[in-house]
Amino acid sequence: MHIAPEVREALDAGAPIVALESTIISHGLPRPRNLEAAREFEQIVRDAGAVPATIAVVDGVGRVGLDDAALERIAGEGVAKASVRDLPILRARRGTGATTVAGTVAIAAQAGIRVFATGGLGGVHQGATSSFDESADIPTLASHPVAVVCAGVKSVLDVGATLERMESLSVPVVGWRTDRFPLFWLSSSTHELDWRVETAEEVAAILREQDATRANAGLVVANPLPEDRQWDPIEHDAVVAQASAEAERDRIHGKAVTPYLLGRIVELSQGRSLEVNLDLVRSNIRLAAAIATAYAAR
Ligand code: PSU
Ligand code: MN
Where exactly are the structural domains of the chain? Predict the structure, then answer.
């Protein structure tokens, strides 16, 4: 593993750090917006006074903190989507992969980074009772001490089943100033949360309690977009239904499902879903930086 000097210094000083994933860059956003977004995401962390650590595997090395050349590689063609199980294979063959939430959480935990921001978590897919399609994001969060700030899970998933799995696997979930689990592009779902937090200090206190008990579990901080910035629910429902039907028709499976759906949804909405997606990631990064700052102030 290679930790960028700036990230190393922040770790040694106990300064705030926000981990960022790279699958969203390689497989979640269309080129060339993806590279622009990757740079902007890092800048948001810096503007908030924290250090960004974008995580990926480059030529077989797990890298925590990417320089601009590495960001360009990840935003280019031919990069593997790397979940936890792909990491040893990529290392062994000196491959390059962009880490999913699961892959990023595993590497961030190893580096000792406690706070991470992304768009939306992977979860249980519709029809999972027969397909068994459940993202490795959930079990990985159950066994690694990394808090992830996200806008819930994408509405293409079975949201209720995902919440049930998080309960079974003992992944704690708190709503950021909300009582309901957000739906990624949409601010709210019908799913009520058990816990609500109002301040970054409250979240930092939860992290410290986990540290004190060596809980070794993550934390999901569900951060909804304000309602006036969400995607139009009518267009959302129609586009998500169409993209999901097409994925089934084309028998998309395995790691291709999420990138396929996200790509189709951007096309079908003529980019309107993309603007909301970018907006919610920015909002999650700002909140993650505030939480990392509160956590660093020990
Ligand atoms: N959220 C986004 N864009 C993305 C993803 C999530 O806004 O591209 C990615 C994350 O990397 C997440 C992955 O870990 O999708 C989930 O993939 P899967 O369902 O195959 O586990
Ligand atoms: Mn899957």
Answer: 1-113, 119-298
21 is catalytic: yes
- Beta-bridge partners for 17: 51
Q: How far apart are CA 116 and CA 100, in angstroms?
A: 12
135 assigned binding-site residue? yes
Running along the chain, 298 residues long, what does each successive block of 10 average in pLDDT? Answer: 98 98 97 97 98 98 97 97 98 98 98 98 94 96 98 93 98 98 96 98 98 96 97 97 96 94 96 97 98 94
Catalytic residue status for 154: yes
* C-alpha distance from residue 277 to each of 64, 102, 271 (Å): 24, 19, 10
Residue-wise over 169-189: b if at least 16 C-beta within 10 A, else e? eebbbbbbebebbbbbbbbbb
Which class is domain 119-298?
alpha beta
**Threshold 0.95, pTM exceeds:** yes
Is 67 within any annotated ligand binding site?
Answer: no
Complex ipTM, two decimals? 0.96
Q: Is the CB of 25 under 6 A from ligand 1?
A: no
Which atom of ligand 1 sits closest to the CA of residue 154? 1
User: Considering the domain 1-113 in this protein, what is its CATH number?
Assistant: 3.40.1790.10
Cα 128 to averaged position of ligand 2 atoms, centre (Å): 9
Instruction: For residue 74, give the 3-state DSSP assignment.
Output: helix
Q: Is residue 224 within 8 Å of residue 182, measured between CB atoms?
A: yes
Q: Could you count the other beta carbons within 10 Å of the beta carbon of residue 298?
A: 8
Residue 104 Cβ inside 6 Å of ligand 1? The answer reads no
Same fold, 1-113 and 119-298: yes
